[in-house]
Structures are given as C-alpha cells and as structure tokens.
Request: fold
Amino acid sequence: MGTAGTSTDALAGERRQLINVAYRLLGSLAESEDAVQEAYARWYALPRSRRDEIVSPGAWLTTVTGRVCLDVLGSARARRERYVGAWLPDPLPDHTEWHHGPGTDPADQLILDESVTMAFLVVLESMTPAERVAFVLHDVFRYPFAEIAGVLGRTPAACKQLAASARRRVRVERAPVTATGQADVVRQVKEAWETRDIAALVELLDPAAVMTADGGGLVGTVLHPIEGGTRIAQYMVAIADKAPGLELLERSVNGVPGLVAERAGAVMTVAAFDVADGRVTRIWAVRNPEKLGPWVRDA
Reply:
C-alpha cells in the first residue's frame, strides 16, 4: 500500500464503476473491457513513487478510461462505415432473470438504469465524441466539469458547453413510459407475433415506427431500417414463418421490457423496444452473435 492508501483490492473495486462509465461511452462490452484494462495497465506502468503521489486513484483511472474511450469513439465512426448493415449497442440482460456462465463477463458489472436503455444509447450515438464524454460524465455520473476538462483537454467552460449541446440532442418532449406500461405492450406484441396476426401487430405499432436490425454481416437480416408499422408487421410475420420452432421470451433488455427469440435453446435475437402512447415507436433487433455473449446461459 502506498502513501495514498491504495490497496490492490481497492483498485480492483473501481472496476465496476469504470465498466459502467465505459459502456455508456462506447455501447460495446468488449471495447469497454479493453478500455478499462488499458487504464489499469497504465496505472501499473507508473513508477511506484508516482502512484503514491496520486491522491485519488479512482479519479485517475476514470480520467484515463475516459481518454481511452474518447480515442475509441474518434475511430469508431470510420470503423462503423465498414460495418455490414446497421450498428447497434450491445444488449444487456438482467442477471436476476438471465443466468449465464461464471461471473467474469463485464455485463455482470453493469448497473441497469435509464442511461443504458437502447433508446438512450442510440441518442448518444448521434453525439460527437467530446459531447458524449462531457454529457455522460456530467449528466449521468455527476462528475464536475473541472474533472471532465482533464479528460477532454479543454476548459471547464468548454466542457459545460459540450454537455449543453449534447443535452439538446436528448429527447425530453415526453415522459418515459413506465416499465409496467411497456411490458403490457411488449407482451401484446409477443402474442400477436406468435399468432402471425398482422392486423394486431399493425395496431400495436406506431404508423411511423422504425425497426433497425444488427447482424454484423454474420447472420441474415435487413441491412437498412424498415419504416412504417405495416411494413414492420409484415416483416415480423415473414420471419416467424421462416423460423419454425422460434420461441419468444419476455425478458428485460437494457433495463426495460423486451423480447428474446430462442431456437433450440440458442438465443437468435434480442429485441429492445421504445413505446409511446401505448404503441411501439422503435424496435432494435440485435442478431450479431458476437454481441449476444452475455445471453448464453449455463448448460
């Protein structure tokens, strides 16, 4: 233990917070884990004397994690231009209802709240990297702008402006639907989907609804968003017809009610929903198997 009173256990205890910060910044579990590992690697690369001088190792690790994430975000857009089809954030299970292998997955560390819903994360994707870092660190994790300035290499005033700009991108015109209200709508969607009832699906979908699917080029799916409730309903029924034996499960996805599609015990799709006024306005269907690791359950 150094003069700053830092034990290995205390440092390890910061990992949960760092994973939570990184996932909200990146939307990718693998990239979040890499960013946090890089922050720890830089910490242990410091001379012992330098580590002893750092009053708050947790704050230091957060700053470094933020900088690593900022670099990743800077290159992400170019990488996603090469991504096959639409890119969506990694879906997260609720581990009180979905158990998988040993607790080594970074998803085990994540706190599910409104800042990890698919709707929220998709809005974050529309921000510039600097806006996203300023907004997430300040509005979600309540870090002061003086500390955020150290991450972004800008003045606190500039960081405050970035957060304000990001805030304008976040939808605030309606109150979020309650989990109970969303669960009711999602359950009705499940039932209509299972019975191939196009008319019922159309009634449950907003006329301007949009469905986005992420297969990553590894599995078959639509490469472009499907727009319009009727077209989405027709597509959903066509999928069901082509996949006999598909079982739909009502499960929490990123902290809100969603659906998981299984076939022969294997998760094929995780679907997140946005609901307003009793109708589905957005569906995000993640099919890329590389993003479904946390959904693989114990044998």
In short: Confidence is low (pLDDT under 50) at residues 1-5. The longest strand covers residues 266-276. Strands lie at 205-214, 226-227, 246-253, 256-263, 266-276, 279-286.
